[in-house]
């Protein structure tokens, strides 16, 4: 299997997928959680609660990896972004709304956005800046 071209990686990352975010716990052990994300061609973004373990741990140690793959039954294809993450509240309302509309059907998306935005200050964006992108496909 060969590495994907930059254009193929970009197209793959722009598709709606559940990604797996890996970050380090306080003991240094890896933790992996499923997340929604958005790729803009240079960085991946997701949102989380300001009080979530991932937000606290990433603020303490920004080394992360984000991995996505095709499901079983489809020819093998995957992309992993290795890099550093930053946590910020800037733009979270817009990202939260875009991702809810991307991952949920319309009625559920609007209901969820309303509930989440009842307390917009509880959310932050995690921006992952790649230092390396690995792929197969």
Could you characterize the architecture of this molecule?
The chain is α+β, with helices and mostly antiparallel strands and 137 residues long. It has a single domain, classed as Electron Transport, Fmn-binding Protein, Chain A (Pnp Oxidase, Chain A, Roll). It is 29% helix and 38% strand. The chain contains four helices and seven strands, in the order αββββαββααβ. The protein has a seven-stranded antiparallel β-sheet with strand order 2-1-5-6-7-4-3. Helix 3 (92-103) packs antiparallel against helix 4. The longest helix has 12 residues, at 92-103. The relative contact order is 0.24.
So, CATH architecture?
A: Roll
Kindly report the name of the CATH homologous superfamily: Electron Transport, Fmn-binding Protein, Chain A
Helix % is 25-40%
Secondary structural class:
alpha+beta
Q: Can you count the helices? A: 4
Q: What order do the helices and strands follow?
A: HEEEEHEEHHE
Give start-end ranges of low-pLDDT stretches. Answer: none
Summary tags:
137 residues, alpha+beta, Pnp Oxidase, Chain A, 7-stranded antiparallel beta sheet, 4 helices
Summarize this, please?
The protein is an alpha+beta fold. It has 4 helices and 7 strands, in the order αββββαββααβ.
Write the layout of secondary structure elements.
Layout: H1 6-14, E1 19-24, E2 30-35, E3 38-39, E4 44-49, H2 53-60, E5 63-69, E6 78-88, H3 92-103, H4 106-116, E7 123-136
Antiparallel strand pairs: 1-2, 1-5, 3-4, 4-7, 5-6, 6-7
């Amino acid at each position: 299997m060969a590495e994907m071209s930059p254009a193929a990686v970009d197209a793959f990352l722009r598709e709606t997928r559940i990604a797996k975010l890996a970050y380090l716990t306080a003991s240094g052990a890896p933790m992996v959680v499923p997340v929604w994300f958005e790729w803009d061609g240079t960085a991946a973004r997701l949102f989380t609660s300001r009080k979530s373990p991932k937000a606290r741990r990433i603020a303490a140690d920004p080394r992360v990896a984000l991995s996505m793959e095709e499901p079983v039954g489809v020819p093998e294809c995957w992309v992993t972004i290795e890099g550093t993450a930053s946590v910020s509240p800037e733009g979270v309302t817009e990202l939260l709304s875009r991702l809810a509309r991307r991952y949920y059907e319309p009625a559920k998306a609007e209901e969820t956005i309303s509930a989440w935005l009842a307390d917009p200050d509880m959310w932050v964006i995690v921006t992952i800046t790649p230092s390396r992108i690995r792929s197969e496909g």
